Amino acid sequence: MFYAKLMKTDLQTKTAIGRGALSNAVGRFDGLTRHGEDDGWDQSEPLPVLRTQVSIERPRSLISYNRSPDLPFDRSINPYRGCEHGCVYCFARPSHAYLGMSAGLDFETKLIARPDAPEVLRTELGKRSYNVAPIAIGTNTDPYQPIEKEHGIMRACLEVLEDCGHPVAIVTKGALIERDIDILGRMARRGLVRVGISVTTLDAKLSRLMEPRAPAPARRLAVIRRLSEAGIPVRIMASPMVPALSDPELESILSQGKACGARTASWIMLRLPQEVSPLWQEWLAQHYPDRAARIMARLREMHGGQDYDARWGHRMRGEGPYAQMIAARFSLAIKRLGLKERAPAMRTDLFQKPVSDSAQLTLF
C-alpha cells in the first residue's frame, strides 16, 4: 500500500491532498509493517486524492463509562469512529488501532458510521439499572464531521435524548451543529444542554494545515454566535494550545469567543499519546521545521522529558513553569473578559425512561 509510508526523499514535499496526517503507519497491534518504495518513475506529479470510505457498524452497546478525575463527565457516546476533519494532533487517533487500522491517514479516511446508535441508546436509557447523569458527545470523534450530513446519526441521538429529558454536553468544530438549533434550543430552555466549540487558532492558514477539513476559525466563531443567539449556552475551548505555535493567541481566542456570546471557557495543552507523537513530529518537520525543536522541547519540559505523560492530573495541561504560565494567562484573561470556567449544572430531574413498544402493549 503506497500510503503506508510516504517516502522521505523525493516524496518529502508530497502530502495527501486535504488530509492532516502525512503517513499511514500500521497500528501498534499489527505485527506487520508496510513501507513505500520508490519505483524510479517521475515523482513530480501530485499524489491522487484520498477518498473517504465509510463502513457500517451495528453496536451492541453505545454508552461508554469512565472514571477519570480529569473529565467532568462519567459517560459518553460516539455516533462515528474516525474523523474526517483530519486534525493532525487529535488524541483520539490511537483508537483506530483497536480496529486494525492506522492512526494516520486511515483515521481520517476510513470512517465507521453507527446508524443503529439511536435505538441502542434508547434501549440503554430504558434499562431499570440506568441512573441519569449528563452524557458527553464529541469527546473522541466529532459528531458533526462532514458524513453526519448524509447519515444524520447525531440528530437522531439528540431526538432520543430530548424525548427522555436527558442532559447532554456536546463538543464540536463542525458548523453542521447549526442544523440542530431547533432541538438544542428546546433542550437549552429546559436546562438540558451545553455546547463546547473548539477554536485552536485564529490563523486560517495554520488551521488549514492542522485541521484540513474542519471549518475555518471565523466560521466556528460564527457558530458560537448563532448558538448563543438561540439561547444555547456555549463554551469557547482554546484547545489544544500548541507551545511556540498557537499559544500566543490564547487571549485573542478567548476574547473573540466572548464577543460572539460564549459564557464559559477552557483550555487544554497539546497531547501526544501513542501514535500521535510521530504523526505530529512528521507534520512539524514538513510544515514548521524552523520551530519543530522548540515546540517539542517545550512539550517535553511539561511532561518530565517525555513527549507525553498519561498520568491523571497531568495529561491535560502538563506541569512546570511553561504550563503554569499558560494557566496564569488563561485565568487572567477569563477574569478580565467575564468568562467562567464552570457552567451551571444541567438538570437531571426531567429524565423519564423511554417506554419500549413491548412495554406499551402490556397496558392493553
Radius of gyration: 21 Å
- In helices, the fraction of residues equals 25-40%
Strand content: 5-15%
**What is the annotated CATH architecture?**
Alpha-Beta Horseshoe
- Largest sheet features: 7 strands, mixed
User: How many domain regions?
Assistant: 1
Separate helix tally:
12
CATH class: Alpha Beta
Total strand count, please?
10
What is the typical, i.e. mean, pLDDT?
89
| Amino-to-carboxy terminus distance | 60 Å
Structural class: alpha/beta
In the CATH scheme, what's the topology name? pyruvate-formate lyase- activating enzyme
Largest beta sheet: strand ordering: 2-3-6-7-8-9-10
Q: What is the N-to-C succession of helices and strands?
A: EEEEHEHEHHEHEHHEHEHHHH
Notes on the structure:
The chain has 364 residues and is an alpha/beta fold. 31% of the residues lie in helices and 12% in strands. Strands 2-3-6-7-8-9-10 form a seven-stranded mixed sheet. A three-stranded mixed sheet has the order 1-5-4. Strand 7, helix 5 and strand 8 form a beta-alpha-beta unit. Helix 2 runs parallel beside helix 4 and helix 8 packs parallel to helix 11. The chain is globular, with a radius of gyration of 21 Å. The N and C termini lie far apart (60 Å).
Task: Summarize the model shown.
The chain is of the alpha/beta class.
Compile the SSE list and pairings:
Elements: E1 53-56, E2 64-65, E3 75-77, E4 80-81, H1 105-109, E5 110-113, H2 117-125, E6 135-137, H3 148-151, H4 153-164, E7 168-172, H5 181-189, E8 193-198, H6 204-210, H7 217-229, E9 234-241, H8 250-259, E10 264-269, H9 276-287, H10 292-302, H11 321-337, H12 357-361
Parallel strand pairs: 1-5, 3-6, 6-7, 7-8, 8-9, 9-10
Antiparallel strand pairs: 2-3, 4-5
